[in-house]
Amino acid sequence: MPDVKFESQKLMLKPSDVIFMYTDGVTEAENPEKNLFSNDRLRNCLANLHNTDPTYIINAVKHEIDAFTRGNAQSDDITMLALRFNGKGKS
User: Fold this and answer.
1) Which residue in 12, 66, 73, 82 could disulfide with 57, CB within 3.0 to 4.6 Å?
2) Helix (H, G, I), strand (E, B) or coil at 21
3) Alpha carbon of 69 to those of 32, 37, 40, 50, 78: distances in Å?
4) What are phi and psi for residue 32, nearest 5 degrees?
5) DSSP label at 36?
6) What does the alpha-carbon distance between residue 53 and residue 72 come to, in Å, rounded to a whole number?
7) pLDDT per residue as tens digits for the range 10-29
């Protein structure tokens, strides 16, 4: 993609911070009425999971997607990655 522009940013993590990455298939998952799971629904789901294990976060979000879609066929990939920073914070 020759005309794509990228921006570089830095993020300082503190011990126990979690990074959650996902593909657009998460927020674009559709229920039978063709409503999208949405960024807002994902944000609300994650807000309740801020002090939990990364594996639990992935499973909880997947459960919310499954409950929302109610068996509607998946139209895109759903990929998620949650990482907890266990390093030392900057003094």
Assistant:
1) 82
2) strand
3) 7, 8, 16, 24, 13
4) -60, -25
5) B
6) 28
7) 999 999 999 999 999 999 99
Residue with tokens 């003094």: 91
The model carries a pTM of: 0.85
Q: What are phi and psi of 45, to 5 degrees?
A: -60, -45
Burial label, 57 (beta-carbon count in 10 A; 0-12, 13-18, 19+): buried
Q: Distance (Å, rounded) from C-alpha 45 to C-alpha 67?
A: 12
What is the CA angle 41-47-48, rounded to 5?
A: 100
Question: Which of 39, 4, 24 has its CA nearest to residue 74?
Answer: 24
